[in-house]
Fold this sequence. Notes:
Blueprint: E1 27-34, E2 39-44, E3 51-53, H1 62-74, E4 92-99, E5 105-111, H2 116-133, E6 137-143, E7 155-160, E8 165-169, E9 172-176, H3 186-203, E10 207-211, H4 217-222, E11 228-233, H5 236-248, E12 254-258, H6 261-264, E13 274-278, H7 287-296, E14 300-305, H8 308-320, E15 324-331, E16 341-347
Parallel strand pairs: 5-6, 10-11, 10-13, 11-12, 13-14
Antiparallel strand pairs: 1-2, 1-4, 2-3, 4-5, 6-7, 8-9, 14-16, 15-16
Amino acid sequence: MKTVGKEHLDKIQDCVPSPKKWCYRNKASFPVKRGKKNLNVGFYMKGSHRIIPINSCCILEEGIDYIYRRLLENLSYLGIEGYDEKKGTGILRHLVLRRTARGDKAVILVLRNFGKKEERSLRSFMQRVSEMLGKDISFYVNVNPHKGNRIFGERTIAIKGKEGLSESICGKRLFFGPTSFFQVNRDIAELLFQEVKNALEISGADHVTELYCGVGAITVTYGKNVKSVTAVESWPESVLFLRKNIKLNKLNNVRVLEGDVEEFAPDALFGEDKVVLLDPPRSGCAKGVLEGIIERRPKAVIYVSCNPATLARDVSILMNGGYELSFVKPFDMFPMTAHVESMALLTREKLQIARYDKGCS
């Protein structure tokens, strides 16, 4: 955020600490590659696609780490060839594990293709590991035939167990799919969502345009406190669960638009009586989205970001377009790493905002 300008450093508040420093992460994605003798499973070395094999990870929730260790011990029985990224051959690309506070557990195998041979191998493997992991675990296959580093493809098949995962956040219940985005640190996510709700109150929001809204985890937190919400999301699975969560939480004031945010940005989604809520991917907002905001002059912008670099870039663009930075509040979403989640509030008029008085410990 320092790239916004030294004169704005006083707007960066103290980092909100995570209630947990270890064993907090409720999701893990492990790339898989074909080795000379066995499958290589682990994490990428920084700045490369070389896999460093790991047997355990101390920032994962204990339940997920246990599942990972048991799967790793039995992965040779799967009988599915690991992926070769350079040649585009092989089948098994990623192993993704998820667990919710409500106790739902999921294993997602990302495959280059999925035919009868792979299904037979997978069902035999599931029968073996289910005896160790318990009958309540769900298994999914996600098919990603495309080259590149995106983990998930658009097709997901529920092989065993539930169609989705159930979670509790800020006293609300919601569901999300095996490939849907959900914050990896539930405890600090609750504090972040509450701060978003507070920022909406500060800005005097009655009508909200929420872009990149996912399954609606933030939406259900503040939805009953405003008159209307226009929620935009592109990932089909997330849209499915977004609609379900709106109905589950009895929100009758939310309009859902399915499609790329960039397609809707030039539309009449923004207005001077509205607040725009952004929660984009690490790459930040598309230029057209920011241009649409500046052109239509909504009264405030609340920006949630997992990448300080793209947040600084986008905040600079909005400030050059006439917005005043009220504050930036970091949240220690990823303890024991160099990463941080942040929330910025920008308004058309200058506001006096009290600083948060606790720092990361």
